[in-house]
Write a structure and sequence with these properties.
Helix content is 74%, strand content 5%. It has 176 residues and is mostly helical. It has a single domain, classed as Arc Repressor Mutant, subunit A. It is elongated and about 70 Å long. A 3-stranded antiparallel β-sheet has the order 1-3-2. The chain starts with 8 loop residues before the first helix and ends with a helix.
């Protein structure tokens, strides 16, 4: 019927697809603001009072600009750290792919180690779909190249870690 008011929120949203899109976009944006703010404060305890001061000024003076500037600074710093980290991981990938270029199974394992920096021979065997001796040889190639190192000193189900990858993952956080 023409002129009948909407009976629910869903009816209202159904009236205009763009309004729905806009509302969802605003809600997602607000959620991201909260998430980034919390993450930034958690990572950088020194900025906690600065954040709360800016938030108080929003409440008391309507000063959104200071709070937004604080938030965007955090987003920028987080993005710079993530970019630095990604570049370092890509550099590591290329370095070790060149080092093991003549060994196809080890070469395939390089990308797997970048996804999950801890590896066992059994995991390599499963990922590469090869026999245990072939997987062991691929892992040993990465050990010899310096990408993997054994940790824990176990005789069976030895665990290897990609130390350069772990260092790249940690270094932006340590810069805080």
């Amino acid at each position: 019927m023409v002129g009948t008011p909407p009976q629910s929120v869903m009816d209202m949203l159904a009236l205009d697809g763009f309004a729905t899109f806009l509302m969802v976009t605003v809600l997602v944006g607000m959620a991201l603001v909260v998430i980034y703010s919390i993450e930034y404060i958690k990572r950088v305890g020194d900025h906690r009072s600065e954040y709360y001061d800016a938030l108080l000024r929003v409440r008391t003076d309507g000063d959104w600009q200071s709070w937004l500037l604080f938030f965007l600074t955090g987003v920028r710093e987080t993005a710079v750290r993530a970019t630095t980290q990604a570049r370092e991981i890509m550099r590591i990938r290329e370095e070790y792919r060149q080092k093991v270029a003549g060994r196809p199974k080890a070469l395939a394992l390089v990308d797997e180690v970048l996804r999950a920096p801890y590896m066992t021979v059994a995991e390599a065997q499963r990922l590469l779909k090869v026999t245990n001796p072939t997987a062991r040889a691929a892992v040993q190639t990465l050990v010899d190249a310096g990408l993997l190192e054994e940790v824990g000193g176990r005789k069976w189900r030895r665990l290897y870690v990609a130390r350069p990858v772990m260092d790249a993952l940690r270094s932006p956080m340590e810069a805080l």
